[in-house]
Amino acid sequence: MLGDGAVAVAHPNIALVKYWGKRDERLILPCTDSLSMTLDIFPTTTHVQLTDQNTQDAVLTDGAVARGEMARRITAFLDVIRERAGRTERAMVETRNTVPLGAGLASSASGFAALALAATDAYGLSLEPVALSRLARRGSGSAARSIFGGFVLWHSGASDDPDPDLASYAEPLAHAHLDLALVAVLVETGPKPVSSREAMRRTAMTSPLFPDWLATTRGDVTAMREALAREDIATVGEIAERNALGLHRTMETAVPPVRYLTPTSHRVLEGVRDMRARGLPAWATMDAGPNVKVLCGGGDAQRVAGELRKQSGCAAVVARSGPGAVLRKKVR
Ligand code: PMV
């Protein structure tokens, strides 16, 4: 028989100061704080329906049965929720994305945020948003930030905290109101060759630049918070671009190296530098994939997107600040 169910929607977020490196793989505790903007594009909608007839969870992603690593991660995540709820039913999970998966467009952030909200509701756990962000973190680190809309800070928590799980959560930066737009340039939308999880592990273990990366990122979080508070878009853009380039340097110096950026990504980066030289303020950020996201003022977004399309030949989608995860429907 079918049991309780729920539907939730969450949006991806793009980090202005990145999370890259875990100090605990099981609890997904990051080495540093990170700071992001939740977007208003590419939402994920997830329906979780409990059933006492199946012996395994059944997961459909965009109509296809999820297998392998993704299916294993979702079941492990549902196990955490079942244990907390003291329940044993299996779940049928159906997820619809509007973004290509595994291409560094933050689909795991929106995916695990929507799943955290829908599954906790279906299993009868009612968590307030900060607690939900701690839980979403266990699915995919960056998902902790997609629980909230706007600018969001994810606290790493002190490593000597008696309860490190409790200490690592996301919260919205209530006083940050900068009119920032993000133009996502879709360089490639196929799945990436190396998962971000593997790339992160390899970088932390082998890149000689990793310790410096952590120290720089800690300073970048503080400077970014200050720049957001004074609505200083140039400093926000400069820190974000520098931080993303630093992230990619750590990957490229890992053994073996992880190279996500393609010749087209580099051409887009060149185009962004060129726009700046011509007096059009724009800055780039990149995650674990070849796609380039370009930050600019809200009023410049359409012009920046138009120039990027012309210059790269790629599709470019304009995003603004978006909402946190919401519950759409309860099924009882
Ligand atoms: O949440 P994960 O494990 O997919 O890691 C995401 C890491 C980056 O996107 C590269 C950076 C970030 O802070 O989102």
UniProtKB/TrEMBL annotation:
Q: Which organism is it from?
A: Streptomyces iconiensis
The name this protein goes by in its record:
diphosphomevalonate decarboxylase
Record Pfam families: MDD_C, MVD-like_N
Q: Where is the Diphosphomevalonate decarboxylase-like N-terminal domain?
A: 10-160
Q: Per the similarity annotation, which family is this?
A: Belongs to the diphosphomevalonate decarboxylase family.
Alphabetized UniProt keyword annotations? ATP-binding, Lipid biosynthesis, Lipid metabolism, Lyase, Nucleotide-binding
Q: Mvd1 C-terminal domain spans which residues?
A: 185-309
NCBIfam families, alphabetically? mevDPdecarb (TIGR01240)
Q: EC number(s) per UniProt?
A: 4.1.1.33
Q: Which PANTHER family match?
A: DIPHOSPHOMEVALONATE DECARBOXYLASE
Q: Which InterPro entries match?
A: GHMP_kinase_C_sf, Mev_decarb, Mev_diP_decarb, MVD-like_N, Mvd1_C, Ribosomal_Su5_D2-typ_SF, Ribsml_uS5_D2-typ_fold_subgr
Please indicate if the UniProt record lists ATP-binding as a keyword: yes
Asked if the keyword Lipid metabolism belongs to this entry, the reply reads yes
Q: What GO molecular function annotation could you give as one example from this UniProt entry?
A: diphosphomevalonate decarboxylase activity
Signal peptide residues are none
